[in-house]
Amino acid sequence: MSSPGITQIPRLAGVANLAEAQRAGFSVAEASRRLRRLAYAKQRLAFLAAAHLNATPEWEVKPALALHAWLDAEHVTALRARLMELREPAGRLDQAPDAKLAAALDEALHACGTVELLGGVYGVLRPALLEAEERYLAETNPLADQPSCRLLKLICVEEREAIEWGRAALAAVTASPEARAASAAWQKHLSAFLAAAGGVDGTEKVSEQKLPAARAANKFEPDITPRRDARFTGLFDTSTPADAVYLDESRPVEERNLALLFKRVREMDVPEVVAGILAQSPPGEWDQCAQLFRQMWDEARHALLGEAALEARSANWHALPINVTFSHKLAKFCTPVERHILLYAIEQSLMPARRGKRYEWELARASGDALSTTFQDFDWADEVLHVEIARRALRGRLKGGLAQARKRADTLWKRIARGLERSPFPAGSDDVSPRGWWVKFASSTLGRKVSPVEETHVKDWRPLSA
After folding, report:
1. In CA terms, which of 190, 202, 349, 355 is 20 to 30 Å from 110?
2. In whole angstroms, how far apart are CA 431 and each of 58, 263, 447?
3. CB-hemisphere CA count at 13 Å for 217?
4. What's the burial of 314, exposed, middle or buried (CB within 10 Å: 0-12/13-18/19+)?
5. Using the 8-state DSSP alphabet, how is residue 97 labeled?
6. Per-residue pLDDT for 221 more than 70?
7. How far is it, in rounded angstroms, from Cα 433 to Cα 423?
8. Residue 67 CB: number of other CB atoms within 10 A?
9. What does the alpha-carbon distance between residue 347 and residue 389 come to, in Å, rounded to a whole number?
10. How far apart are CA 115 and CA 170, in angstroms?
11. Using CA atoms, how far apart are residues 15 and 148, in angstroms rounded to an integer?
12. Angle 357-361-365 (CA atoms, 0-180°, nearest 5)?
């Protein structure tokens, strides 16, 4: 016997109401056409972020670029899978769906400086993407096309979060009238190219107005030289007291844990290495690129772990020598594949229990610092993943596979050392920290005097735990 309330059970599995489910929507071909344009735009945005991450000096912008690039990569992977379900040939997924859309994204790549970069990405492109995503949801049949709708609803959540961050960041960097004018001019310039493409999804009226002179007429060359903003000094400081301290078992565990936290915040130069690999490598296999975008964000997140943990101790971490020596020399002396070989060598050296990532976690736990223990635990998990990412990538890129990678690593370190002898790091007053900086910092943060540390310097980046 039926329950009297059975007719009140929501229909259609809650996917849509009857009126929504009864609208005609659009065809599979139209769904595929629109989703392909969305996937292409997001893929280009991910690579745009990688191409600008190193040259962008503002610390707060770098991890946001890394995060949003990874989210875009996740969205691209999911959209590509959905497109295959919609009968889209796999061979077309790596092709530009429209020459005018490609031209607009080529133009966006030529942003000059942080003001234009943020204005173009967060003032023009991402809002246009969100508009296209919301239009798709409003026009497709939500029952017939439910898998696409589910995906786009999730994408819209992260799109809005990225736009919210971008608008706040853009407001911060356009405080002056000159910066506001520069941002407005670039947004107008870029919007003209997007209008000529009919918007991101190609459904808007195509503008017939004459386009301004295209910057993309000149080939874009990514600047992968790492930069920091004016708050930072000691960019080319090669002293390694923190590396010695965290391994020195004769020192108090609290000081050794503090050294670990400094090592975390210093990791911002690792996403810069990954960004350089992505920026200078042909797209190749999308799955490999997507994994590198994940690693780029992980490494930036590790620097943020150090930032958060040091600020929990009221430490003035901006005054520390958060150097760029690693990313600088790999950018200057190595090809993209060679950079990946060296990343793999370093990550592999961090896997053994003795002096590796497990050791760091145990050290944090022994210090009684719960926050540091959590951070080192997740850092350890991430680095295990990064070893596997490198293994998969290098097996495909090197004829000799991983064995060849291991052999080449030592040769590359020696070549970099020779290169630095010919072309050393800059040595201005702002590039090298004063002697004894670790003792001063640690004593101030811990509230007690710490023992002096022997001043040692490195010519390569092989960790002392290797």
Report:
1. 202
2. 17, 18, 28
3. 5
4. exposed
5. S
6. yes
7. 20
8. 21
9. 10
10. 7
11. 12
12. 165
The 10s digit of each residue's pLDDT in 317-376 is 999 999 999 999 999 999 999 999 999 988 888 888 778 999 999 999 999 999 999 999
User: Tokens 């995906």 label which residue?
Assistant: 151
What do you get for the CA distance between the two ends of the chain, in Å?
73
DSSP structure string for 176-190: SHHHHHHHHHHHHHH
The secondary structure element, H or E, covering residue 152 is helix 146-173
Per DSSP, the three-state class of 232 is coil
Closest CA to 271 of 304, 232, 297, 305: 297
For residue 376, give the nearest of 256, 228, 221 by alpha carbon: 256
The three-point CA angle 82-84-86 to 5° equals 75
- For the chain, what's the residue count? 466
Asked if 343 and 273 touch (Cβ cutoff 8 Å), the reply is yes
| Listed residue (274, 324, 291, 314) closest to 59, CA to CA | 324
Largest CA distance in the chain: 89
Select from 281, 405, 396 the least CA-distant residue to 344. 405
Backbone φ, ψ for residue 301 (5° rounding): -65, -35
Closest CA to 47 of 278, 347, 314: 278
Place of tokens 């990874």: 70
Separation of CA 69 from chain center: 5
Q: How many CB atoms lie within 10 A of CB 380?
A: 18
Paired residues of 457 in beta bridges: 239
In sequence order, what DSSP letters do the residues of 5-24 get, joined into one string? TGGGSPSGGGS--HHHHTS-
Count other Cβ atoms within 10 Å, centred on residue 96: 17
CA distance 398 to 385: 20
DSSP code at position 266: G
Burial of 281 (0-12, 13-18, 19+ CB in 10 A): buried
Predicted model pTM: 0.95
Q: What is the C-alpha separation between 197 and 40, in angstroms, rounded?
A: 13
Token pair of 172 as six digits: 């911060």
Nearest-angstrom CA–CA distance, 47 and 442: 39
The answer to whether 333 and 225 have CB atoms below 8 angstroms apart is no
Q: Is there a contact between 306 and 317 (Cβ–Cβ < 8 Å)? A: yes
- Is the distance from CB of 273 to CB of 330 less than 8 angstroms? yes
The C-alpha angle 335, 460, 228, rounded to 5 degrees, equals: 75
**pLDDT score at 159:** 98
Torsion of the alpha carbons at 385, 387, 389 and 392, rounded to the nearest 10: -130
